Amino acid sequence: MLLYPTYFSPIIQYVALAKAGTVTFEVEDNYQKQTYRTRCYVYSPNGKQLLNIPVKNANSKQKTKDVLIDHSFDWQKQHIKSIEAAYRSSPFFEFYEDEIRTVYDAKPTFLLDFNLSCHELMIDLLQLETTHTKTSTFEKTVVNGEDLRFLADAKSKKNYNLSTYTQVFDDKHGFIENLSILDLLCNEGTNALNYLENQQVTLL
Fold first, then answer.
1. Which of 6, 122, 135, 149 is close enough to 36 for a disulfide, judged by CB 3.0 to 4.6 Å?
2. How far is Cα of residue 63 from the mean position of the Cα atoms in its chain?
3. CA distances (Å), 8 to each of 38, 89, 118, 136, 178, in order?
């Protein structure tokens, strides 16, 4: 299974991960805009909210692994505030808050390193027994395994018909599917892995 490492990835990517023993992360690709590499969505009091990582002059001729995070302003503080506003009253936020903060405190230079640290944290918190490797060359066509790199496309409007679960503000805005894995973790806690493993969805 081939995936792009993304920013606190959408739930559908972790549905795929929960069904795979191993995953290969594509790290030799050229940078693309409007993907989950630099963005994730949380459920705010006002509905679906975008959190976007600022990057320095990234373009499609540049390798994603070389993209630099722009630390000229404290975007981490903004993101933490938004996550707190979204999930402070969720059942499990307090259990994971400190660990989530450590990711933002690290301030890595490269976008790829930050996204991999988000992934490693989620693997730990979800207790997901999945290992990953990284590509050494760009794989234009996947011969062995599933090519799920398209799951990083933030422009996709595909509805995966994920099972509903209780969200903090669903009484105001209804159920919003496929948000950041943070949404599932904070609302479902130790049941999150069971949720992921039991989704009956068609990815391709």
1. 6
2. 20
3. 9, 20, 6, 23, 12
Instruction: Please provide the size of the chain in residues.
Output: 204
Q: Are 64 and 97 contacting, i.e. CB atoms less than 8 angstroms apart?
A: no
Sign of CA dihedral 161, 92, 49, 16: negative
Residues 169 and 43 sit within 8 Å (Cβ to Cβ): yes
Number of other residues whose CB lies within 10 A of the CB of residue 144:
6
Measured from the Cβ of residue 71, the count of other Cβ atoms closer than 10 Å reads 13
For residue 133, list its beta bridge partners: 24
SS3 label, residue 2 = strand
> How far apart are alpha carbons 139 and 2 in whole angstroms?
9
pLDDT at 66: 96
Residue 192, CB-side half-sphere exposure with 13 Å CA sphere: 27
Q: Are strands 131-134 and 22-25 parallel, antiparallel or unpaired?
A: parallel
Measure the CA–CA gap between 154 and 8, rounded to whole angstroms.
13
